[in-house]
Every structure is written in structure tokens, then in C-alpha cells.
Amino acid sequence: MPHPYIPNSASEVRAEMLRIIGAKSIDDLYTTVPKELRYTERLPMEEGIPEEGRLRRHVTSILNKNTPASEMLSFLGAGCYQHEVPAVCDEINRRGEFVTSYAGDTYGDHGRLQALWEFQDLMAELVELDVVTTPNYDWSTAAAMALRSSVMLTGRKRVLVPAALLLDRRLVFADYLSHDVQLDEIPFNEETGLLDLDALRAALADDVAAVYIEYPNALGVVDHQAPEVVELAHEHGALAVVGADPTGLGLLAAPGSFGADFAVGDVQPLGMHMSYGGGLSGYLAFHNDPAVIESCPAFIFAKTETLEPGQNGFGYLNFDRTHYVKRGEGSQNGGTTTALWAITAAAYLGLLGPQGLRELGEGLMQRSRYTAERLGEIPGVTGPRFSGPILKEFVITYDNHEVAAVDDALRARGIFGGKDLSVDFPTLGRASLWAVTEVHTKDDIDRLVEVLTEVLA
Amino acid sequence: MTAQFQQARWNEPLLSDIGTPGERGFIPSAPEAEIVARVPDTLSGIPASFQRAEPPRLPEVAQPQLMRHFMRLSQETMGNDVAVDFGLGTCTMKYSPKVNEHLVRLPEVSGLHPLQHVDTVQGILEILWRLEQMLCAISGLDRFTLQPPSGSAAVYTNASIVRAYHRSRGEGEQRNEIISSIFSHPCDQSGPYSAGYKIVQLYPGPNGYPEVDALKAALSDRTAGIVITNPEDTGIYNPHIKEFTRLVHEAGGLCVYDQANANGMMGIARAKEAGFDLCHFNMHKTFSSPHNGMGPAMGASGVREDLVRFLPAPVVEKRGDRFELDWNRPDSIGKIRSFVGNAQIAVRSYSWILALGPDGIREVAETAVLNANYLAALLREVPGMSQPFPTSNTPLEQFRWSLEGFKEETGVGSSDLSRNLSDYGLQPVFTSHHPYLVPEPITPEPAESFSKDDLDTFGNAFLDIARRAQADPDDVINGPYNNACRRIDAAALDDPDRWVPSSRAERTRNRTPVKGD
Q1: Which CATH superfamily is domain A70-84+355-456 in?
Q2: What gap in Å lies between CA B117 and CA A276, rounded to an integer?
């Protein structure tokens, strides 16, 4: 029976096509593949389900074994966040024209290119740097690419990164950089959670390619020393790579405003569902400097004129710098990343505008501070653990209870507690990182306080 | 035949230019009064110097106008859902079944947080595990990681594994070269380069693929391995591949198979039998996940048993009926990106493979090769079309042919002809990756999703454009005419003094330097 996905599977059509080709059988078309390499068995895999209804029921029955965080009361964050997703964002990023497009050109894909350029345009305003690329896979890989660019631009082989870094980020850096770059960690202040500036000064020298700092950091603390860090880096001829959660940038200083050479972060909070981490998308921004652009081969789209006066056209900015042209001669890797999320983030930023983004940031700060203080009042909880300012995440510690045991008890009561930090930051003891966003109501927070009080009693 | 197609042309203003100050499109839920009362000062603890001085220059636009703007941009985009898209050779554009789009938008996928307790994500872990089993069957290799978020990232992952392997044997410093071929995908070189390798490039012999002697000359005790595509970008299969892998192994190297595009090979021949130690598949090419306008995507990296210990953490393990994430991997290369990867892509590809089963998968490959050879038969009629190698006449899933003769005759090159296809409602045909070893190239790849009618439509359009070019070269050089925009000033894209990556960059450039600034 012809398969619904394969139009030319009807035997008469195949015979007609073979006739025009001048071949007797399909097998004739494979003559270049040596017989001894041919796989003659039937692939050992699950039997096919060509009926759509049966397929849907089968896959859904597996997926129904999941309990989505979005349907529970969840306080998980640590790099992937449950924010409100405007319906418009979902509507735009499910349009078949966008979803099933790829590398179409200036003419066929004019609309896609304009949307991607608009992402660059709005993100440039948000981070106050002139060039933004099509986003990378996630915050970690965008930061790794910026650090690698810094190594290429300075010719130096040491980078300084904060110890207050997500474990995933550390592991991405280790893989992408450590084969030829020395990664030195700068500790955080045990009381404030901010970077230890004295330690940074001691570590800085003229062999440092870049210093990396982010706000908020992996402890949820908004490290407002970032401008000083940038200045210190520049004093030693090092570049400054600054990570910033875009949901804070309606209120907080933009990386470009205090001299960052690179800005990175994740746009997942700007209209993307979590999708088990599949919503991540790492923005990457820098100055409009040909040398910097050359070092970093992520796609950039440029606006230009057309034969028709007043009409905009779009195309790849200096395609020759990408790995598609340079191959193994001096280029970082590039290619397909997360364009659909860029289009979505552009729509999100357009929807919220300057006022909405400010209100979002204010609401995050108020809810997270409120929750941190309420949790801190529960007997057996110390929180917030750090005195530094927070945006949407904070750390608490339990005096007597193991985090995993508390999480189990909370989960049994329908609550996903904060991320256990005992692996990432063993010195913090029984610590966990909690994320509170605009999806959380006061009732949600009251319920958490009530249940956690009961669990710890 | 005349061009019947007219794309929407809205001349849509830039997003930053629509709306009016004071408008807004979305109001995030505000915190309740009790919360505000307890935390009145939102910026407590943020020094004034770290507060944003000026609000970001974002649009101020109401929801209806913003929605309309993006719908218009979508109408000016030729996705595979609306256009015959197989021109984009090497990209394996194919139909992405709609049922899978519905599945990934269920909260049981979209609402999952990557750090949820494993007890609450048994479904998605099972999908990841089941997809892995399928890829093991198709490749013959032993384990896969689904963490790499693209084909390039998968090649890079495999290069990192090669690096870890040689390090584990104390040969990490010495073995610093990766061999590849110029008709392999560009990332087969940039991936290993990014992992710290020097690249030794093989060039094609008279049959279009590198000769065994060229490989022998490239091998040495510095060889860490080979990263190669087969069939290469030309659609030509290197029949000596088994000899290649034998020689590389003999020299102490590992063999990495780029199967980003496996669309003509599934069920026909496998990485294992050809002697490869590692391979990768692109879920967004061969395995039907949509390209999403250029991601999110997934490259699945597979390895032989003795390389499993180097895979990035975590891997999905099945213990009894339960699925777990194994983070305890001391020899792992680290991580390629955060969390487990783009899990929604795995759902789509699992569902697609399952819809086909072992027989359907093989039929996909056979139909892709049938379609390519049929299209080749149609395009052979284009005047001045030539086959760069004798082997080009029996392509697998795609082919790279040359219009050098046509260019000499008319002055109209392959990129001109290609561009005009969009006047016919067809995605332009891919020319070639760089360098253009085949002059005036085209590389179409008609995957199994395209009907004989689609192929005829494409072939007829191509012949029509060629006829128009012969009659009046300028007619084609100035095209296309029926798209969302007219021919662009492309020189401005490459000129640092003129390129415009953002309005902000334009403002910076136009700002008159002030004394003392």
C-alpha cells in the first residue's frame, strides 16, 4: 500500500519513472554501492504504524507518562524558565511557512530574513551593542563561542570565568575551550554571592584573553559589579564577555552601556516554551568591528536596497567568513542553530515593548524577593542564602533536611521544588536554587510556604 | 510555460517602525497587591549606576498590528509546506508530517522542565531511548547521543570524541590531524578544526571521489582520523570506502561518517559494515523534523561500543522498565549544550520513523534515489548542462552538475538561473558549497516527498528559464520579478562601511563624531 508520506510509491509511477531514466529496477540505481557493503536484512526496529490515528495514540500513550512542570506548581529554573508565553508567539512559530523553511534565499524567503533581521535589530537595542547574530544553541554555547573569539582576537590562551557558574555551562566550556585554553575560576563572595573582585584582580594578567561575568549568576545573584569587571579586563588588554538574562534588561544596565565586548544570554524566556530544554536559544552580540565579526561565524543578516526604490531586501552579511566557505581554515563551527526562536523572540520583544519589559522585570524582582523572604521565615530554612540582589532566582539552605528528600516530599504534594545545588556547589551544603516568575500567583507562593512548612516540621 | 506565481509583496515596514508611542501588545501578569506592599522597591540592592538609564528602544505596538506584521512576513516565506523546496540540495528538504507538529505542542512535551525528577519524565526519556534504538539499527553502531543541536554540532561532538580517545591512549598530542575531503560537508573540517585539529584535505580524482593513493599519502602517525561524507555532496558514492576505513585504522586513526544526509542510504548500507567507528544523522534532514527556518534542530552522534564512555553526559539508560539519566561519566567529553538537547525534535523523528517502519524507511531511500535520477533525466535536456565526472550520471539522492557550457553560451550562470526559480513558486536550487570545484554548479535533491508532477514542474520551469536566458540574458539576470522583493544590492552585504546588521549600527555609523567624543 502506498505510504501517505511517499507520493511516488505507486508501482505504475515507479515503472514510468524508471522507463524515462532508462533503468530496469531500483537496484540498478545503486550499482555504485559495492555488493559487499549492501545491507540485505530487514532493519531490526519497531514495526511501522502508517495509520495516523494509531500512531498518534501510540506516541501520546508514551508521552502521557510525563508530568509536565507547566501543569504542576514548579520552581525549577537554572537555565530554563517557565514564563508566560503570549499566544501570538505560539501562533507565529507554528506557521508552516516559517517552520518548514530553511536556507531559502533573499527572494523566496524575504519574510523569514526580515524577521531574523528584526530579531537582531531589537536585541541590539536591548543589549546596546550594534551586531547581534542569529542566536546560537543556548546561553552556554553562545558564551563559549564569544570566549573562543576572544582567544582568536587576542592570541592569548587563558580565560577567567566565575565559579558561580551552572554545571552545564562549565561542562560546555570544558569541551569547547579546555583543549588549548586554560580556564581559571574566580570565586564568589560567600556572603553576597557576588564575584570576588580581589581574586579577579589577583588572577588578571596580560595573558588573559577574556573575563566572563553574568547577571544573574548561577546563584541567582545580579552581579552589579559587571561594569568594574569589564574595566578591570580592559586594563589588562583582555576582552569582556558579559552574560545577561534578557528579562532583567528592562531595568538593569545593558552590557553594551558599560563597555562589554560581547553580550550573551538566552532568549528562551522571551516567548519559548521549555520543551525539556528544547526552547533554549543563545543570543550573541558584539561591536560592528570587521575583525570581531570575522572571528565569530554565526549567521548575521544585513539589510540592503533593491532595484525598487524604498524597498528593503535582506541577505547574509559577509557569508565568506562562515565555516561554509572557510571550512577547516580558521573558522569556528557554525550552521543551523535556533532561528525559529529568534523570530519568536522578536515578536515577544515587540509585544512587550519598553514598558512591558520593565513591568516584567519589576514583577520578577518583587515576587522572587517576596518568596525568598517568606521561605526564609520557615523554621529550618535559611534564605535567601546570599545578600546580593536577585532577579528571579535565589538560593535557600535547609538546616537539617537533605534537599532530595524535601523534593520528594514536595513532589508527592504536587510541587516541584528548586534545583538541588549539592552537586554543582557542594560547599553550600543543603542548598537549592528556586525560580519564581510571573506565572506564580500569591496563592501559589502561599501554598508552597504552607506545604514546605509541613514537610520540614 | 510562463511563470504563474506571484508571491505576496507587502513591502512590510520594519517592526521598529510600526506602532505609536504608548501602544503595547502584551501585559505580563502583575504581582498581587500584598506582594507589592511587602516589596515596594523593585530595585532594592541594585546600585543606581547599574540601573538602566534609558528604556530600550523597542517597538510600541498593539497586538493586532504586530500579529499582522508577522503573518505578512510568513506569507513572504517559501517553506516546504507551500513551495516545492527540493532545490535546496544537501539539505534534504522533505515533508514534515503535521501529526508530529501537534504532538510536540502537547504540554507533555512543551511543558517539561529539563531538571524535573526522572520519575516525572519517563515518557520523554522513553522516546529518546526508542529513537536511539532505531538509529542504532539504521547505522549498525552501538549507542547514540541526541544532545548535539545540529549536524555541525554532531560532527564537532564526534571530533571531540576522537580527541578524547587518542588522549586516553596517550597519543593526544601526537595525533593532531584530521583527514577530510573537499566534497564532504564544510563542517567536516570546521568541526574538527574547532576541536583543535589541523585539517588535511583530499581532492577528488577522475571519478569524483578521492583515490585510495591520495588517502595513503595523507596518512601518518599524526593522523587522528578521517571525517568524511559518502555519498559526498556530489551524490557520488565512493566505492572504496571500506578500503579507506581499513587504511585509517591501520594508521591508528578513527573513522567518522557524516551521514547528515542519509536519505538515499537508509536500509541500503550502514556505517558499521563500511568500517566506521562513529557517525551522525541530522534529525532535521533525513528524519523529517522541520528545519524551523534554520533550527532548532538535532544531530544524533553514534559510536561503537568502546567509544561509549566518551559520549557527552547525560545518556539515557533503560533499567528494567524504568528510564534514567546517567550523569556519572568520568571519561565523557563534557557537554555540547545544556541539558539533554532539543527533545521535541526527537519526538518528531521517532514518530516519523515509526510511521514508516523498516520497510517504509528503505522505501524512502529508494524513492529519493529514484527521484534524483528522474530529475537528472529531465535536466539532462538543459542546453549546456554537463556532468563533471563520469560517475555523475548515476547519482544517489542528489547530484551536482555544471552549467559552465550554458554560461559560456549565454553569459547567464547557474546562480542566475537558480534565483529565477522563485518566480515559478519553487525554492531556488542550491549551487554548491565552496569552493566551486564544479563550475557554475547546481545541486538539487528531490527527496521522497516529491511527486513525479513536482519533479516535472521543476524540470519544466528550469528549461523555461534556460530558454528565456538564451532569448534575452538580461531578462534572467534581472530576475526574479514575482517575489516579495526585487533584485538586491548584494555588494552592501559584504562592505563593512555599508552593511546594516541593525538600526543601531546605522545610527552609530551616521553619528557625526563630536570633538572629545
Answers
A1: Aspartate Aminotransferase, domain 1 (3.90.1150.10)
A2: 12
Class of domain A87-348: alpha beta
pLDDT < 50 stretches in chain B: 515-517
Name the A residues in 124-163 with CB < 8 Å from any B CB.
Answer: 124-126, 128-132, 134, 137-141, 148
Q: Does the pTM exceed 0.90? A: yes
Peptide bond into A379 cis (omega under 30): no
- Closest CB from A168, A310, A335 relative to B335: A168
**pLDDT of the residue at B517:** 42
- A418 min Cα distance to partner chain B (Å): 9
C-alpha cell at A208: 588573559
Beta strand extents in A96-223 (DSSP E only): 131-132, 158-162, 182-186, 208-215
Closest chain A residue to B235, measured at CA: A32
Q: How many CA atoms lie within 13 A of B118 on its CB side?
A: 16
Q: Which residue of B has its CA nearest to A12?
A: B452
* More confident position, A119 or B86: A119
Distance from CA of B405 to the nearest CA of A (A): 23
Residue of A42, A56, A60, A63 to mutate, testing the B interface (most B Cβ within 10 Å of its Cβ): A63
Residue B246 pLDDT: 98
Tell me the C-alpha distance between B370 and B359, whole Å: 16
Beta-bridge mates of residue A244 = A215
Cβ–Cβ below 8 Å for A21 and B47: no
Query: Which of B82, B274, B500 minimises the CB distance to A304?
Result: B500
The whole-number average pLDDT for the span A127-153 is 98
- Please report the pLDDT score of residue A30 as a whole number: 97
- Residue B235 to residues B208, B245, B388, Cα–Cα distance (Å): 10, 20, 12
Residue ranges covered by each domain of chain A: 70-84+355-456, 87-348
Interface test with B, best of A12, A45, A377 (most B CBs within 10 A): A45
